[in-house]
Write a structure and sequence with these properties.
Number of helices: 4
Largest sheet: 5 strands, antiparallel
Number of strands: 7
Strand content: 35-45%
Strand order of the largest sheet: 6-5-4-3-7
Helix content: 10-25%
Radius of gyration: 15 Å
Oligomer: single chain
Length: 110
């Protein structure tokens, strides 16, 4: 447990993975993928379960993501994004604009 919290950022990147939806699993022949800004995810756990939105921010230090449409209200009425652990979401649509990311999935599907 201590190793996980004291890990350097290049190793924390490995923990930022989420399962793929059934459609994407069949298409890409992969079970999970790294969550990146721009991906569309569906929240599975918590008060916001069932909410679908785009990933706005990925925080490697805290191992959390922020999803558009998932937020809390403060006592003064202001709305703040709610951090979610990536294991509590499922990726429904990937942002494949990055050429390197396309290569990763193409390598697996061959």
């Amino acid at each position: 447990r201590k190793e996980r919290y004291n890990a350097p950022l290049h190793l924390l990147q490995r923990y930022m993975r989420a399962p793929l939806s059934k459609d994407l699993r069949e298409e890409l022949k992969k079970r999970n993928a790294q969550v990146r800004k721009g991906d569309t995810v569906k929240v599975l756990r918590g008060d916001n379960a069932g909410t679908e939105g785009e990933v706005e921010e990925v925080n490697l230090k805290k191992c959390t993501i922020k999803v558009r449409g998932v937020s809390n209200f403060r006592a003064d009425g202001t709305e703040v994004p709610r951090p979610i652990h990536p294991s509590n979401v499922v990726i429904t649509k990937l942002d494949l604009e990055d050429a390197e990311r396309e290569k990763i999935f193409a390598r697996r599907s061959q």
